[in-house]
């Protein structure tokens, strides 16, 4: 007997200006005006996506002591944008990245509980930590925490926020004698938390929201991050969007759930994925190549090489050969506030590998960056992309994907109109929303129901 087909989860990431977007394309719109966010969100909701995802930028990135102006734009506050989107959407989940290193549990819990009320139960929190002192300079405490301390604080931060969400009680339903309207008898509760990172007490001032708690996402890939997700998250924002890499990550994280008394279906794994969609596979391959070339200008190629070399390479010709000098492996890095720096943990080995590739293929600096940098995860016609996504999900490489288009805000339109209907025809993606909250979309129990289930078992 064959196992039933898994239902695919789809979401959309509004990426902002960075090396994945083609902001110079005439079709590209503003990355800060509300009309762009609204168009993007409405397209995702029209396609019956689970949620929209916003990342976080706490400081403008720098390179060589100057603002990195090739891909930086002012990024508006996450909560403000999501609250505004709640007014122009009805079902779409609203997910925001909020840092646990520099914020406080009371403030963040209050903001998410408010967003959950405003949206009718559609709020989600991507819990992240901050890894660099550069970002920390924008905050009162400054500095940053070592990796182990970051996750220790994040776990306690999330647990403390949960205590705040749960401090309101509303189990009793009473009738208002004057109006005949049934009201929930909500009782404000006090909270007391004494721990390693937080020592707070008082009363939470936002009543229990429709979802009880926001859906919790996590995006870390380290062993600590995977354990954090297995113990505490509802979904994990993964970077493994290939079949083999996705299957390995999926198996590893899902196998960690049992030690926390959780089932496989209580944590969704949703990799980020880019795509190049055209009428035919050949046209899509050509588009994918064109997009990669647009993403990597000569100036961008030089800046990317500086991530590894940790030197000012502005004197080099991007259409010429790679530098013959070795990278500077000192801790004082030329690039500030950019996660890509951490990807190259052995710059000398990376430089040797890149030189070998460039020599073997007769590549210039720009050619190398184009061919070793970001590649679209899904390339093809609507039928090809729909089949690939479904194959990956059914093969347990993921539970779905968070799509990152290269054009904002219209880059999702063709996917919504051409790929989604094919997935719906195959019976692996919804034709309509089955409930009003994000927990409904993701198939996750309300926290109160989950507590009852654990008690019964």
UniProtKB/TrEMBL annotation:
<keyword id="KW-0560">Oxidoreductase</keyword>
<comment type="similarity">
    <text>Belongs to the NtaA/SnaA/DszA monooxygenase family.</text>
</comment>
<dbReference type="InterPro" id="IPR036661">
    <property type="entry name" value="Luciferase-like_sf"/>
</dbReference>
<keyword id="KW-0288">FMN</keyword>
<protein>
    <submittedName>
        <fullName>NtaA/DmoA family FMN-dependent monooxygenase</fullName>
        <ecNumber>1.14.-.-</ecNumber>
    </submittedName>
</protein>
<feature type="domain" description="Luciferase-like">
    <location>
        <begin position="24"/>
        <end position="395"/>
    </location>
</feature>
<dbReference type="InterPro" id="IPR011251">
    <property type="entry name" value="Luciferase-like_dom"/>
</dbReference>
<dbReference type="InterPro" id="IPR016215">
    <property type="entry name" value="NTA_MOA"/>
</dbReference>
<dbReference type="GO" id="GO:0004497">
    <property type="term" value="F:monooxygenase activity"/>
</dbReference>
<dbReference type="InterPro" id="IPR051260">
    <property type="entry name" value="Diverse_substr_monoxygenases"/>
</dbReference>
<keyword id="KW-0503">Monooxygenase</keyword>
<keyword id="KW-0285">Flavoprotein</keyword>
<dbReference type="Pfam" id="PF00296">
    <property type="entry name" value="Bac_luciferase"/>
</dbReference>
């Amino acid at each position: 007997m064959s196992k039933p087909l898994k239902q695919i989860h789809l979401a959309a990431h509004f990426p902002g200006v960075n090396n994945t977007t083609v902001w110079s394309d005439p079709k590209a719109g503003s990355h800060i005006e509300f009309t762009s966010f609204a168009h993007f969100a409405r397209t995702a909701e029209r396609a019956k996506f689970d949620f929209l995802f916003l990342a976080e930028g706490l400081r403008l990135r720098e390179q060589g002591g100057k603002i990195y102006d090739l891909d930086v734009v002012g990024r508006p506050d996450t909560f403000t944008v999501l609250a505004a989107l709640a007014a122009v959407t009805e079902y779409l989940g609203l997910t925001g990245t909020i840092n646990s290193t520099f914020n406080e549990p009371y403030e963040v819990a209050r903001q998410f509980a408010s967003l959950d009320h405003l949206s009718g139960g559609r709020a989600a929190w991507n819990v992240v930590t901050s890894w660099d002192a550069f970002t920390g300079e924008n905050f009162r405490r400054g500095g940053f925490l070592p990796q182990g301390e970051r996750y220790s604080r994040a776990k306690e931060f999330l647990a403390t926020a949960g205590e705040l969400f749960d401090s309101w009680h509303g189990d009793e339903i009473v009738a208002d004698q004057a109006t005949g309207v049934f009201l929930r008898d909500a009782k404000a509760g006090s909270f007391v938390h004494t721990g390693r990172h937080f020592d707070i007490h008082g009363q939470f001032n936002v009543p229990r929201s429709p979802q009880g708690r926001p859906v919790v996402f996590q995006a870390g890939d380290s062993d600590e991050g995977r354990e954090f997700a297995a113990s505490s998250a509802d979904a994990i924002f993964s970077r493994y969007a290939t079949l083999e890499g996705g299957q390995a990550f999926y198996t590893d994280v899902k196998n960690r759930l049992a030690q926390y008394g959780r089932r496989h279906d209580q944590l969704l794994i949703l990799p980020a994925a880019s795509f190049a969609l055209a009428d035919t596979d050949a046209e899509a391959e050509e588009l994918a190549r064109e997009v990669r070339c647009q993403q990597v200008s000569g100036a961008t190629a030089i800046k990317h090489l500086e991530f590894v070399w940790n030197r000012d390479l502005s004197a080099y010709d991007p259409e010429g050969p790679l530098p013959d000098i070795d990278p500077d492996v000192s801790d004082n890095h030329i690039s500030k506030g950019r996660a890509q720096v951490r990807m190259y943990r052995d710059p000398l080995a990376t430089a040797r590998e890149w030189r070998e590739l460039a020599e073997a293929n007769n590549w210039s600096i720009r050619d190398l960056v184009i061919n070793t940098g970001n590649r679209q995860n899904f390339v093809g016609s609507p039928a090809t992309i729909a089949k690939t996504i479904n194959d990956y999900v059914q093969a347990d490489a993921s539970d779905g994907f968070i799509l990152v288009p290269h054009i904002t805000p219209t880059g999702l339109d063709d996917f919504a109109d051409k790929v989604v209907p094919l997935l719906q025809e195959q019976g692996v993606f919804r034709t309509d929303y089955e409930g009003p909250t994000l927990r409904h979309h993701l198939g996750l129990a309300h926290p109160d129901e989950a507590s009852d289930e654990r008690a019964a078992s």
